[in-house]
Amino acid sequence: MISNTAAVEDVRMTHHGAASGEAPSPPTPEGVPLLGNGLAFSRDPVGAMEEWATLGDVVRIETPGLTTYMVTDPAAIERILADDHERFTISEAQRETFRGVEDDAVTTTTGERWTRLRSALRPAFTRDALDRYSDRMTATTAAFVDEWDDGERIDLYRELRLLTVNVLADALLDIDVRGREDVVMDAADALVDRANFRRPGQLLPDWIPTPTQRRFERTVGELDEFVDGIIDERRGSESADDVCSVLLDAHADGKLTLAEVRHNVVALLLAGHDSPSVALTYVWYLLEEHPDVYESLREEYRDVVGDGRPDAESYDDLERTRNVVTEALRLYPPTLGVSRQSTEPVTLSGYELPAGAQLLLPQRVVHRDERFWDDPTTFDPARWAEPTDRPEYAYFPFSGGPRNCIGAQFARRELTLVLATMLGRVDLDVSMDGPLRFTPSLQLRPENDIEATVARR
């Protein structure tokens, strides 16, 4: 916790700098010797960021060997991600996080290469493409959920991870991964574990063979072999409209290397299953806490879908279901935050920051800021039923601007249709061991055991 005295002292220091002709410096939370703010962040990154945000819209965070500026002003966030995006690039921290697994992917590249990769992927995420994927999403979900027995007790988060791997693989890659999901999930787990802020040896270089690093290299190697097999199989088949075909067509045209094809498929498999499964877990957790909302979704399903299965046409009519997904992403965005790095000196919210400044834009903190949200900690899907005048970047679960998540609309479509399909086939009685806790890593996964009892409809 940060004392009020420390906060006042920081404000005094800022005003003193301004009065003496020096550029004002962002406030810095009280820290501890040697570790600075790193100890508080590693113990509870979510709680620490929420507390630090009370000091101002830009806060300087000091951790061993790194200064990071946390930005929670929507206007400044819009500048960073959209209006002045050319003055900011992905951070070195982001490149380090994904080094060895997504080096040639759209998620970690910049400049002309990023533009080329983004252009190659774009045809796979058009509105027409999303409509084509919709039936596959719901068919895969229905087949998966129908294997649950009435009265069965399931590990909800694991089952939703298995489900989203299968939805992604079928819709975007046109492959069947049943029985092979652990290749993807193990690599994602190793990536999250390597980025865990509490991990012993986290500050050691990657060439030191810690158990965590060895596991990361092994599981990523297995995932690379798995994806290479998919690519080899698909290269000999007829071109289709899925992502794998789109990327291979770009390779055949000389626009992408095979390494770029592989790393973009790997990136889609990792992020494309992990974030949706985290989000769906929190959706079901919230529905358990709000039975009135749960019932309203069942009623909407009966009115819109009836005895069938959701499809592309029903997606637009599932307004309450979409609003539940949107609100869940507000309260529980799947990632810790968006990171950027300034390419030149910039002024944000009145503070001058140097070239190369590391920036952290924490969605959860901004999504719960009472300046922009009424009852910000309350789950209220109805808040999305009417337009408001709140700042656009008071809500950015999938980042924003030109480098926003290219699969954002796919994820929204998937979350809505998968949730609706599940609601039409099962009821889930969700339980959790204690208050919700988060894994301290790049994905805000639930640290709790979350289980559910299945009741067939």
List the helices and strands and how they pair.
Blueprint: H1 4-19, H2 38-43, H3 45-52, E1 58-63, E2 66-71, H4 74-83, E3 88-89, H5 92-97, H6 111-121, H7 127-145, E4 153-155, H8 156-173, H9 181-194, H10 211-235, H11 243-252, H12 258-289, H13 291-304, H14 312-315, H15 319-331, E5 338-342, E6 346-348, E7 351-353, E8 358-361, H16 363-367, H17 408-423, E9 426-432, E10 450-456
Parallel strand pairs: 2-8
Antiparallel strand pairs: 1-2, 3-5, 4-10, 5-8, 6-7, 9-10
Helix pairs in contact: 7-8, 7-17, 8-9, 8-12, 9-10, 9-12, 10-12, 11-12, 12-15, 12-17, 13-15, 15-17
What does this structure look like?
The chain is α+β, with helices and mostly antiparallel strands and 457 residues long. It has a single domain (65-456), classed as Cytochrome P450 (Cytochrome p450). Helices cover 50% and strands 10% of the residues. The protein has 17 helices and ten strands. It has helices at residues 4-19, 38-43, 45-52, 74-83, 92-97, 111-121, 127-145, 156-173, 181-194, 211-235, 243-252, 258-289, 291-304, 312-315, 319-331, 363-367, 408-423, and strands at 58-63, 66-71, 88-89, 153-155, 338-342, 346-348, 351-353, 358-361, 426-432, 450-456. The strands form three sheets. The chain has a five-stranded mixed beta sheet. It is globular and about 70 Å long. The N and C termini lie far apart (47 Å).
